[in-house]
Design a protein that fits this description.
GO terms for molecular function: transcription corepressor activity. The protein is an all-alpha fold and 373 residues long. The chain has 15 helices and three strands.
Length: 373
């Protein structure tokens, strides 16, 4: 606040800095406004000019620093914005060079605006979502399908790129044959004719010998192109047939896991059931219900009589009959030995039936004989 205007001039100075930081005004305008504010403070004005001259100088700021700095560390708060999630890169941010762009590409491609996370998406990632085993099976199936499709498509793209080159080679060979071998025509492959995707497809079909094939393609394209094209077409037919066979397997996986994958709460339900059905949890629940139960009416029982802590009613007795039938059917049609079948039946007739007070005819004697009792 050493300027002549005091606090008011200091506030105006901060406004100028804010406008310059938001790229509303340029260096010349900012310097002109600050010069009016500082007045005769020549030393402050000289220091401000020195700081302003450093702004945007790649040599003094270190151009390599921008390339090594991730976008997450750049402060986009003062940068221009066109939507809530898109910000403009700082003007002094060095753009990486991109050669061989056409006029249309220079006009339509974006080199200025970047997407920055806004709100909760800043610390959210899809990998944090818990997936059940059925959903994971669907994801694996989808990954396999995507990988196979990408391999087939890249292989087909490489074959399509080699087709015109093969026609050129055949035309040159035909022209050379008509001249009676008078002069050999040299065919040179343009390095821009095949992209990285095409070269990777060629390496994929030749495996460990992929590098040798690429070297041969570079040295003798006229001899290598027809052979590589034939191999690409052969692998294309094989992989498409294999995809048809895999589609049946993928369909079974989808049908088997689709409906179960929609249950995103099963993991938590299983954890809760395991905890609530443990011995300690059941005993604790009985004690709590006993403590909360109202006092029983009538005379107190004798000390030697056992008084239950919890009494439950089973009005639907037919449910137990159905359970007995299911257990008897399972025991009869299982691989248990005759002795084990007899033990299962004795448990039903001697313990469970009297425990629930059920009629004796619910476990018939003929089933007992069939079970080996």
């Amino acid at each position: 606040q050493a300027a002549e205007g005091g606090a008011e001039a200091w506030a105006e100075f901060l406004k100028v800095l804010e406008l310059y930081a938001q790229e509303v005004i340029g260096q010349a305008e900012a310097l002109h406004l600050v010069q009016d504010l500082l007045g005769k403070q020549t030393e402050l004005l000289a220091e401000f000019k020195a700081l302003l001259s450093l702004k945007g100088t790649a040599d003094q700021l270190g151009g390599d620093l921008w390339y090594s700095m991730p976008l997450s560390e750049i402060d986009f708060g003062q940068c221009r914005k066109c939507t809530p999630s898109y910000r403009a890169l700082p003007k002094d941010y060095l753009r990486p060079p991109c050669s061989e762009r056409s006029l249309l590409e220079h006009r339509v491609l974006n080199d200025t605006w970047v997407s920055v996370p806004v709100g909760s998406e800043d610390n959210y990632s899809f990998k944090h979502m818990r997936k059940n085993q059925y959903e994971e099976a669907l994801f694996r199936c989808e990954d396999e399908r995507f990988e196979v499709d990408m391999v087939i498509d890249s292989n087909a793209a490489a074959a399509a790129a080699l087709e015109p080159l093969a026609r050129e080679v055949r035309a040159l060979q035909a022209a050379e044959g008509t001249r009676g071998g008078e002069r050999r025509l040299q065919y040179k492959l343009d390095k821009r004719a095949l992209s990285v995707v095409h070269l990777n497809a060629i390496i994929r079909i030749y495996g460990d010998h992929g590098a040798e094939i690429l070297e041969l393609l570079k040295k003798n394209p006229a001899g290598a192109i027809p052979v590589i094209l034939k191999r690409l077409k052969q692998k294309d037919a094989e992989w498409r047939k294999a995809r048809q066979d895999l589609n049946k397997h993928w369909k079974e996986v989808q049908e088997k896991n689709w409906h179960k994958s929609l249950d995103h709460r099963s993991f938590y339900f299983k954890q809760a059931d395991k905890k609530q059905c443990s011995q300690r949890a059941l005993v604790q629940e009985v004690k709590e219900r006993r403590a909360d139960a109202p006092p029983a009416e009538g005379p107190a029982p004798a000390p030697y009589h056992m008084r239950p802590h919890l009494t439950l009613d089973f009005p639907e007795a037919e449910v137990h009959r159905d359970c007995f039938r299911v257990l008897l059917f399972a025991a009869e049609n299982s691989s248990l030995s005759e002795a084990d079948k007899g033990r299962v039946l004795r448990l039903l007739r001697v313990f469970l039936r009297p425990f629930f007070g059920l009629p004796e005819e619910w476990v018939p004697e003929r089933d007992a004989a069939a079970a080996g009792e």
